[in-house]
Each structure stands twice: as C-alpha cells, then as structure tokens.
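hey can u check if this looks right to u? its 412 residues, i copy pasted from the old doc so theres a chance i mangled smth
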Amino acid sequence: MNEIAATQSSADPLADPLAGQPHQIVERDGVRYTLLGTAHVSRSSVDAVRSAIATGVYDTIAVELDAGRLHALTDPDALAQLDLVKVIRQGKTHLFAANLALAAYQRRLAEQLGVEPGAELKAAAMDAHERDLTLHLIDREVGLTFKRALGRLGWWARAKISAGIMLAMFADEKVGDEEIEKLKQGDLLESSFGEFASESPALYDSIIAERDRYMAARLRESATQASGAREVLAVIGAGHLQGMARHLAQDDTAPATVRNELEFLPQKSGFPWFTIILTAFVVGGFAFGFWQGGVDVGADLVVQWVLATGLLGALGCAIAGGHPLSILAAFVSSPLTPLHPALASGTVSAFVEATLRKPTHADFMALRDDVQSVRGWWKNRVARVLLNFFLTSLGTAIGVWTGGLRMLGKLI
C-alpha cells in the first residue's frame, strides 16, 4: 500500500534541513520519495535544498526542470547558441517569443529581489553532479506544455496571449508584492502567465494540473530505471506539492502510458474552415469578376487584393526595420499566405531577415537589455526579427480584411 506522510517539520533546522519547509514523503514500491516544495524566489529554499543533499541520505535527486531550462540556468551563453533561422523554419517563433517573455520576467524578479528565480533548482542539479548522485529532470518540456495549452484555446484567447507575450517583453515595471507572494507558493510558469491561466481552465490544466501528474509519473519511471534507487529527493515548486503527492501515491497507470498521454499533441480536428472559406471567397471573387465584368474587372480585383495585402504586409515589415529583400518577400508572400493554412507572411519575411542579417553572438547576449527600450528593439537583430514576424503578420491580417471588403463592395 502506498502511503503519504504530510509533514512540515518544526524541529531544529540544524538537525533537520527540512525543518519549516513544506514537504511530503511518499513510500511506494520500495522507494521513499521526499517531495520538497520550494519558493522559486527564496534564498531559504536554496539553503534547504543544499542542506538536504549534504546529509548524504539521498541517492537520487529529481528537479522540476527539463533539459532546455537546465541548460538555460547553468549556461550563460545558452541563448547565444540558438539558431534563429532554424527556429523560424520549424515554426517555433511564437515559442521563442514566449521564452523571451519568461526570461524578461525572471530577470525583473532577479533584479528586484536579488535572487535568481529557480536558483534552488540550479543548486540541486549542480550539487547532485558534484556529489556524483543520479539526477533526473522530471518536468515536461516547456514548448510541449505551451503547445498543448494553446491547442485547447480559441483564436481570441491565443491572440490575447500573443499580445500579453509582447507586452511582457516590453514591460519594465516592478513585479507586485501580491504576485511575488503567489510565486512563493506557486509555480514560475503559472506566475508568468497567471492572468491568462486564471481566466482559462484549459490553460491552467495544461500548465499546472497536467504537470503534477506528468512529474509524478516521471518520478516513478526514473526510480524504476535507476538501479538501486531507494531514497529520492524531488525539488519542486510548492504549488505542485499536494498534486504530485496525490498522483504519486494513487496513480496506478503505468508511468510510460501517463507520459505518452501528456506528451501527445492532438491533431486539429476537421478542416481549416476559415482558410477554406477565405480561399473560396477570394478565388471565387476573381472568377466571378472575370466572368461578369471581363478581363478589366477581374484584373482590377486581383490588383486590389495584391496591393491591399502586399502593401500592408510590406509596410509592417518596413516599420520593423526589415531589409529591402525582407520587405519584398513580405509583399510577395502576403497575398498568398492567407490562402495557405500552415504558412504566414511573417514567417517568410522573418526567415529572409534572419538569413540576410544573421544575429551575432553579441545580439543574443545583449537581447535581454535591448528589449527593455523601444530603440533597442530596432537595434538588436534578434528583436528586429521578432518585430518583423509580428508586424508583417499584423499588416497582412489588416490587408486581408481591407482587400476582402473592397472586393465585396466591387462584386455587390
């Protein structure tokens, strides 16, 4: 039988490193799991983690990180090693922007509080390495979490999150006391995008509840894989403590099955109706114009569509400070990409921009400082590529509605 010992020791911290720290102990299948709930912005959490590992009681350490986040925490040059052209080619521009927003939020916290967010996770990983202990990264990859979350939202909710991400990268105000207190008891991802999570049960489920079950399954799976694992210390955000303890003790589904279920990205159901309707309207409008009004009317409709979408897409790229060839790419692609369900004019122009003006190591290293000022967005090549993507896409979207309404007026 699996048992949970809910504890928050009040003993002397010198004798018990977990004294006063929220933690729970779950014994299952011959393995004793100690779940230590930490505050991601607390020096005392860092001290508690290091003291617990120093006791020598634990043979395995698990942390609430994935490989990418651990790399970002431990390698100052991790961002500079990124291939931005590859990011755009793989359609991960939105994810890259979300990671930048998260990094900007973490930096504001670090400057305000004098402690690096996630320092206790970094300390756990580094101490495990120094003591030659088995280390397991149990959190789901951030990109996968965001994809699952966004996949459950409608277009309006996704648009609000995109706008919030842009505002988060520009923001330079202090983090409020209430938000800091919530972070001490919660989760970094939840705090970063808490406004959206509180408004959307689907988003909350993907960012918090799903990860409770996922990390509990990864703990069971890693303990099975690690030969001789008997004492496991799991360092997790305090907001995950109750949920993980419950899943760890009660979930009888095979860990691999749980992991596969929560890593699965469901295919979008049905057809891309908006794209199909828009394509039918535009192509049908051209055909109707040629049929009813001859070459002059049909050609005029085509020219109006091309100019409305192409010029506004190119204007967005130009405002972003795009290279002349990036502006040309925006003009050429903007009339066509709205009719393609998996391609955006912003992706095309940003790809050309990143190829022609490849960001340097210095651009990546200065990115977090540069995005704190309006001028810095146009100065930094990485930031300028992101501006290119968003503003070109915005210009094209406005052009679609403008061109569509003009076409409708002509046909009527």
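The beta strands are 3-7, 23-28, 31-38, 60-63, 134-137, 231-237.
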